[in-house]
Each structure stands twice: as C-alpha cells, then as structure tokens.
Amino acid sequence: MKDTISVYTFRRWFEDHRPNNFSYLGLASLFDYLEQYEEDCGTEIQFDPIALCCEYTEYDNIAEFWLDYPDMDLYPDKDAIMDYTQVIEFGIESFIIQVF
Questions:
Q1: Are 21 and 58 a contacting pair, CB within 8 Å?
Q2: Is residue 58 part of a domain?
Q3: Beta carbons within 8 Å of 65's beta carbon, 6+ residues apart
Q4: Most exposed among 11, 15, 60, 63, judged by the fewest C-beta atoms under 10 Å?
C-alpha cells in the first residue's frame, strides 16, 4: 500500500512535527530534489521524515555550515562541499546538504 505525497503534504508534516528542521523554501527544494532523484533512478522513495531530518541539514549560508564543518580550507565554498556530498542550493545563499 502506497500513498503519494504532494509538496503540500510534505511541508505540512514538517511544519506540524519538525518546524525547526527546514525552512519553507528548503522544504520545497528538498521535495523537488527527492522527486527528481526518484525520476532519475526509477525508484520510489518511502516517505520517512525522521530519516530525512537525520540525513539532510539546511544552512542559511557557508558561515553556518562552518559551525558544523569547521575546516574552512577543505570547504571554502559550496562548490568544494559538492566534492564530498549532495548540495541542494536555493535562495541567495541557503543550501541543504546530505550529511556526511
């Protein structure tokens, strides 16, 4: 038995249960990324919001990222981070990474 999740349902779950994990724009970007991943791989993803909270982290900017990953020489910018993990960019400076 499967249930198709819309971006509205996706956002609503996080807003109701984990409001501090992702921003409104971040949720839309993560949802779009996951849908594109499903399409590219031909595999459906099970909606597991707690796993998504553990697997992905949103940052407002690179300075906030450096608080969790303080090696500024290794990660001077988002392009360098992309060498190590998936980066989902949105807004002016914001991005989500797949935790590594």
A1: yes
A2: yes
A3: 59, 75, 81, 95, 97
A4: 63
